[in-house]
Design a protein that fits this description.
The protein has 14 helices and nine strands. It has 414 residues and is α/β, with parallel strands linked by helices.
Amino acid sequence: MSARTILQKLEILADAAKYDASCASSGTAKRNSMGGKGIGSTEGMGICHAYAPDGRCISLLKILLTNHCIFDCHYCINRKSSNVARARFTPQEVVDLTLAFYRRNYIEGLFLSSGIVKSSNHTMEQLVEVARILREEHDFRGYIHLKTIPEADAEIVHQAGLYADRVSINVELPTDSGLTRLAPDKDARQIEGAMGKVKSDITELKDAHKRFKHAPRFAPAGQSTQMIVGADAASDADIVGKASRLYDSFGLRRVYYSAFSPIPDASAVLPLKRPPLIREHRLYQSDWLMRFYGYKPAEVMQATEADGNLPLDIDPKLAWALKFREQFPVDVNRASKEQLLRVPGLGVKAVGRILASRRHRNLRLDDVARLTQSITKVRPFICTVDWRPVTLTDRADLRSLLAPKTEQLELFAA
């Protein structure tokens, strides 16, 4: 069989990488080549789009080194028993592609993952070699995210962190039983052990960099992970609990959620259809509540329904408020920041505006309306100088009143 061209390899391996959601590029060290040294930058604006903390869109070349794999995870399109076209880049080919795309202003960095070929150590060494060539031979200063392999030796993973801005290790599934059933080649304890080692390396070298100016940086953008949603019987409560434990135990920057997608020639143990994408969205919203709104994991779990899953028709914050109506209404002129953050419809920025405005005068309902995007969801849960919801908060049909209206889109609408 004739060898594949670079373009053919790119078509196969870029498509194979689309199932990995964890390609954000936030939180890294600032580097650029404005002084005439090196190539690339982690600060410029721009094929995968990620977003920096200030809202900038950053484009990353998102590919696999290879989609050959010696593992046979049931949910993976690249498993060894899967009947798909296979391709493999050499480290130098990935380097050449990255630099070529950067020079054409297509990308600002690289997100590189891989199937396991030959062995975990061999594959991890190939990933590290890509980053080494970019950093040492081309002085590349753009963003690099390496997907690391928990079965590889810790020293090789450590080398990855010295070259990459962010490293990530996928926990794959929310429960150990699900991982054992669907990914028999993977071990939950080994995955978490590798994540723990990365955390200790990040902490150790961060402390060293504070004491010694020229100490090497280790994964300055931290580590992240990803869980597949809907491939097993795990509920949203299970997923929220797992995510919370991962944040607490390993200091993760992000936990990403990826809705299971049916694959060709799928195993009989997998679901026949994918979960609704809105479920993935609700999990991201619950993640946001824990990270930025002060909700404890147990409180997010309280927002779930009888089956342990978050409602799909309303967001988790509203679901929690409807279950705990005795906490409302809150007085926007007297309530603490923590209380205001629990009000459905009030985001972090809106709460900040309310706290700043009420220092100067008592707020009326019209004032709150000007400080928020929509007053409709907020009204049943707040009091102002001229507004008190009376029985509105306790209405039996409040959920249906506040749930977004479903709308059937017209294919040929003008």
